[in-house]
Write the structure tokens for this entry.
Amino acid sequence: MDSSKYAVNFDNHIDKALAVVAGVAELHHVSKAVRHLPARMAGLGVRSLQHVCEPAWISSWVPAMSYIFEHMSGELKQLITTHAFYHPSIFRDRLPGKTDGIQEEDFTSFILPLLDGPCPSQHALVEATDVHTYAEVLKYLQTRSNDPEEDDVRRNLEAWFVSASVEGISYWLHSSTSFDPSLRLGAAEFTENVRARLLLPLVSDNTFIGGTCGCDSVLCSYHCFACPLLGGIRKYRHDQVMLEVIKFFNKVILKKGCVMKEFKLSNPMPGEKARVADIALFHETVIKFFDGVISDPCCPTVKRDVEDHAIPGEAARASAHSKRVSYSTRHGPDILPLLIPLSFESTGRYGVESMAIINELSGLTGISFDADLKIKNARLYLQRRISILMANCTAYSIRAYRNRLRFSR
């Protein structure tokens, strides 16, 4: 069997297996593209053999030819020049910069120029494919039709896809390999998160349910992450994330300071009610107040750019700004230097300030406390726990929303 046909056949089997895991008849072409992307690009990291085999062949074949023509005898060079097997179209697709302007495709005219200089590694060639695939998926999600409902669905999918396109938030994908029960996902929770990652419908259809939850617009299934009636699930997630942050802070400061939960601030502005910070940290001369907020990137109130495209991290940035405004209103602007909003998005994406303070306390940027291996391990555990908590809440929200739709009909 031709190797390309084998690769197609192999990928089809993988797609069918993932469709079974996700509980659908077959994967949409967008889902097939997403499953190939690495986790940092909102994919599953289940590589497509079609996308990998050609870079693997080029990255080994070209160096081998270079070595032969540099070190072997003239007779062997002539033999290879006459009988070498290669696909010009593969080189043109994968090495456009080196093949531009070369018209002839015989070995001497086409291949020999490619042997000059370093050949891109397999990783570099695959990464170029990833960048192209990511751009194609994003272009599809950003394309608008004449159907308002379909546009609303794509708008939500785009926001979720863009929000998940960041490194270090997808530890839940590897939860099955962990021996720690606190870092594992149940099979049902894993399935729901795979469906969300593959941009599949989270319920059987997109249903108008205006009036049942106070939302008066056509809603797609990703509304489950912002529906007011599911606020209890999100509060549980918030409380659990803050609990993990408190544990991390306690490991960081050891016995050199104090971490307090739900600390009521003093001296509110006249006529205002005092805020209660989720966490207060006291360490020698350092006093900081932390207030956590987890926002939904699919929420229709999240700002988009002038072309109606999702802005990476905008939901976390906006919620952090709202926290500052609220604290400044109740306690005056003097509270702002002491406040650090711990903002996250429901995909697991960290707000800029959240990641910055966690990195700083871990000794990765600046030195605020004594950083050691135990603290870095505590940071890694925190990130894994937050990933698991976000994934669990995603699954709970989907199931609760699905059940509510079932009983509302």
In short: Residues 221-408 form one domain. The beta strands are 257-264, 276-283, 286-295, 339-345. The longest strand covers residues 286-295. Residues 206-211, 365-369 have pLDDT under 50 and may be disordered.
